[in-house]
Design the sequence.
């Protein structure tokens, strides 16, 4: 699962990517600096993993990860191939969620492609380009489906009705994620269309250091603008995060954070938020060899969770031994949890909960 960082040129995308991944994507004060999308595999910060490590004292600890893709800046006209339009739009299409970076700071030394700072205008520029691309996709599908619908094909008629609603919404400037469809309609028709504006989005407001804790007027305008989208808005001083990232000493980093009023790097919050945006959750395995965080979709069953470790675990699934994370911490060890009767045995229909500590029994 991948989250793609998008935005206009010079809003701080590559600097943010560097903070998240510690990769050294080129970061410069001009558009189209990042031509090939950079991909970083980022550890998901999770205090629960650290707590399990202290209790189990394993040989190694392996965190959950999320893939972050740094996509070059879109410009007006990208949907028609302006700038590096088609390539960028293709890169966005391959991601599962969008981290939309908006410039919410003033700095005369960093040029803005439109000459002034206005995050709402910037957001609308990107939205419009993505909506136009989706409209093009929907119209092509409609051309094909209409012919089948005319022959009386009931499925084609249903699909045509959905596509017409998508077309109407996009033509009025709405992203697909803001349109109302039933769960069945989403599964059968909307998801297979692979539309860019159907992807979940989080808006990352890139602010100056003084606004890192409380935001500013630009951030408030963004919050007001996206209220109907049910999208998360995250405030991040990307330049400051980059400075913190340069410090090797943990205590120095903590002092820097305290000085500006933060209890943890904003990038850690962003990674956790991106993980949720991708509809992901974590379960743990804990033993002397390793304590490990595993990634599963929210709503996954126990056999599906077992399959993340190895396909044989899913094929031959018998049962799962499950300990709630809070019980594990409360009792301090697996043996004490068992003594207290708090370990559960779950079957094939069990829906995994975030933080479950699990052990699978299987037979192939």
Sequence:
């Amino acid at each position: 699962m991948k989250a793609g960082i998008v935005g206009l040129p010079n809003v701080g995308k590559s600097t943010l990517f560097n903070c998240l991944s510690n990769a050294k994507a080129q970061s410069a004060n001009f558009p189209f600096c990042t031509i090939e999308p950079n991909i970083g595999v980022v550890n998901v910060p999770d205090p629960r993993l650290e707590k399990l490590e202290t209790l189990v004292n394993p040989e190694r600890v392996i965190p959950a990860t999320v893939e972050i893709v740094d996509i070059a800046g879109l410009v007006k006209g990208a949907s028609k191939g302006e700038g590096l339009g088609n390539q960028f739009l293709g890169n966005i299409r391959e991601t599962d969620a969008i981290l939309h970076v908006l410039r919410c700071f003033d700095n005369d030394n960093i040029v803005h492609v439109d000459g002034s700072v206005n995050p709402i205008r910037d957001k609308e520029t990107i939205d419009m380009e993505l909506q136009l691309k989706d409209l093009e996709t929907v119209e092509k599908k409609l051309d094909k489906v209409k012919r089948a619908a005319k022959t009386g094909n009931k499925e084609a008629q249903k699909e045509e009705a959905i596509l017409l609603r998508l077309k109407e919404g996009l033509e009025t400037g709405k992203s697909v994620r803001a349109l109302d469809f039933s769960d069945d309609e989403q599964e059968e028709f909307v998801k297979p269309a692979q539309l860019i504006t159907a992807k979940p989005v989080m808006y990352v407001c890139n602010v100056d250091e003084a606004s890192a804790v409380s935001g500013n007027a630009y951030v408030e305008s963004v919050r007001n603008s996206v209220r109907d989208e049910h999208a998360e808005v995250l405030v991040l001083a990307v330049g400051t995060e980059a400075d913190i990232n340069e410090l090797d000493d943990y205590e120095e980093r903590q002092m820097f954070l305290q000085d500006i009023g933060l209890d943890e790097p904003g990038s850690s919050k962003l990674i956790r938020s991106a993980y949720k945006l991708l509809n992901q959750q974590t379960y743990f395995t804990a033993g002397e060899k390793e304590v490990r965080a595993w990634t599963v979709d929210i709503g996954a069953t126990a056999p599906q969770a077992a399959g993340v470790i190895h396909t044989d675990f899913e094929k031959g699934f018998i049962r799962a031994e499950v300990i709630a994370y809070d019980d594990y911490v409360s009792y301090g060890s697996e043996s004490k949890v068992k003594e207290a009767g708090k370990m559960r045995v779950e079957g094939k229909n069990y829906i995994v909960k975030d933080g479950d500590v699990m052990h699978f029994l299987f037979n192939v």
